[in-house]
Design a protein that fits this description.
heterodimer; A: 9 helices; about 0% strand; B: about 20% helix
């Protein structure tokens, strides 16, 4: 990697890390440490920076990698019987109201994906459609329905008021 | 490309109620921040590369999109993952001599399996004529798919001879659809991705955890094998396939 690559990746990381973490945290209601998963996903993005930098939506690449890591971790852990229930330590604590992922889980998969990619990751309508594999004209429809459903959540109403 | 900042804020496209909902959601999430310095992120690479990134799994092959497969594996015998050692991002041209030898090795292997495939209505001696070959280093993946039969074969050249690593035989499938095959052998663990090239001049295959592969593209098909850390037939949608025009611009993207 060149110094230009380092500077470019650093700029990408600084401008994207919080959005990627929020998108991941909302997408993984049962993750114990989404920040670790997102940090690892960014690290893998750095591993593959020459290809990730020209990806049509690098933030989506990071999110998908984090979700895959979460799934792999979940699978590994689900194999052996866990005898000890791990309590999250203070270091694991993420300031995320658990009602947010719960509210998002009530949405359909398409609505959830559009919300995450379009609103939380900041992808364009076309990028969102390409990532999900749907027609771009349907993105605003799914988004309107998602936001309409979320608006009924007491959590959102409490903030909007 | 959306490398840094979003191109446009969605709020500008929403009606007031929806915009207010987005603002509220963002306000609720404002405290969720990733407080890791970029040096730590980059530093993880060095730590990870000191460990073995590649798992060796028991001999098996799993095909996604290939029904009724019969699995053959070579004898193996080495403890190292030769797929990792042999892999290159860009395939090497296959010589006529290698093509003939590879096809013969694969045909010999699957012909011997005709009895195992009894009852599956597969031909006794499936032919690899016209199969697509993706060779990287001394390891090649061979795929022939049509409506009547699916054949996948991986071979390794050792001391001038091509030896079978693994092969799958299945009932036919739609070759325009992307098929992902996971192959494990005591010597190699790989994913193989095959499909229609959709008129593209070049095709790139991205699998999380692997560098991008420039696929072999011949006669409207593409094929790439990649060293594996995971059986991506379990989650093929995580694979990204980019179809590029002659200038290298992305024409379209798909996930199996």
């Amino acid at each position: 990697m060149t110094s230009d690559h380092i500077a470019e990746f650093s700029a990408f990381y600084e401008s994207s890390k919080d959005e990627c973490l929020r998108a991941a945290a909302v997408s993984m209601a049962n993750a114990e440490a989404p920040d670790d998963l997102v940090a690892e996903a960014f690290s893998r993005a750095w591993d593959q920076w020459p290809s990730v930098r020209v990806h049509p939506a690098p933030r989506a690449w990071v999110l998908r990698t984090a979700l895959n890591l979460h799934r792999d971790e979940w699978r590994r852990r689900s194999r052996p019987l866990r005898l000890v229930t791990e309590q999250p330590t203070e270091a694991d604590w993420l300031p995320l109201d658990p009602r947010i992922p719960e509210a998002v889980e009530q949405l359909s998969e398409r609505q959830r994906q559009v919300l995450v990619y379009r609103v939380l990751l900041g992808l364009s309508t076309a990028e969102t459609a390409a990532e999900i594999g749907i027609d771009a004209s349907t993105v605003p429809v799914h988004l309107r329905r998602a936001l309409s459903a979320l608006r009924t959540s007491p959590l959102i109403q409490g903030v909007s008021r | 490309m959306n490398l840094h900042e979003p191109a446009n804020d969605v709020i500008t496209e929403l009606d007031p109620d929806d915009a207010a909902t987005v603002v509220a959601l963002r306000e609720l999430l404002a405290g969720v921040t990733l407080d890791r310095p970029v040096d730590e992120i980059i530093g993880r690479t060095a730590a990870r590369s000191s460990r073995s990134r590649w798992m060796l799994l028991a001999a098996a092959a799993v095909a996604c999109g290939v029904a009724g497969g019969v699995i053959l594996t070579g004898t193996g015998g080495g403890p190292s993952n030769i797929a990792l050692a042999e892999w290159t991002a860009t395939p090497v041209p296959v010589t006529a001599g290698d093509r003939a030898a590879v096809e013969a090795t694969c045909e010999q292997a699957v012909a011997a399996s005709g009895r195992e495939a009894a009852g599956s209505r597969l031909p006794d001696a499936p032919q690899f004529d016209g199969a697509l070959i993706d060779q990287r280093g001394a390891l090649a993946a061979v795929v022939r798919r049509d409506a009547s039969i699916d054949l996948t074969c991986t071979v390794h050249r050792k001391q001038g001879r091509w030896e079978l690593l693994a092969a799958t035989i299945g009932a036919g499938s739609d070759p325009t659809q992307v098929a992902v095959t996971f192959v494990t052998n005591p010597d190699a663990v790989i994913n193989i991705v095959h499909g229609a090239a959709r008129g593209a001049a070049a095709v790139e295959v991205d699998i999380p955890d692997s560098p991008t592969a420039n696929a072999t593209v011949v006669d409207g098909q593409f094929l790439a094998w990649l060293p594996a850390t995971f059986d991506w037939t379990e989650d093929p949608s995580a694979i990204t396939i980019r179809f590029l025009d002659a200038a290298g611009a992305v024409m379209s993207t798909t996930h199996p």
